[in-house]
Design goal:
Elements (H helix, E strand, L loop, with lengths): L3 E6 L11 E8 L6 E4 L18 E10 L11 E5 L20 E3 L2 E5 L4 E5 L1 E2 L4 E5 L6 E8 L1
Antiparallel strand pairs: 1-2, 2-11, 3-10, 4-6, 4-9, 4-11, 5-10, 7-8
Length: 148
Amino acid sequence: MAASLTLTSLYPTGQLQQIPNRIVLSWVSASDGTVAISTDNAVDANGNAANVHGIYGTQATVEFVPGTGGSQPTNGYSVTLVNASGIDVLAGQGAGLSNTTATAVCPGVPLKDGTTTSTICRMLSGAHTLNVSGAGSGKSGSLVLIVR
């Protein structure tokens, strides 16, 4: 069984520049429990090439949503979203995920000015590779990106 990745971009009609975009990366794992697919190779809900030439914008929120029933991934599965430089833009927050409960995080870029450590939202630009490990054969879930 081969892994698959479906990308749905949900800009509300007529409001492209005014409110955040909800990008859903729905995945199904291969027989070895993994996914490693670029957003450039994702398909749309009809199985056609999604023709999305990357993900662009400021990452606001990330949601990890496990499948349900027979497609529920193995507890403790992990997800990364890697940019062209090899950086996990989820900042490691997709490790050890629950197979029953959706999780929302706000990963950012760490800043340090010598006295205070903080983070800012990460800019996304271009193709990204979704990697899933430890999910089990033919299991599913979604990574939801809220990008503004």
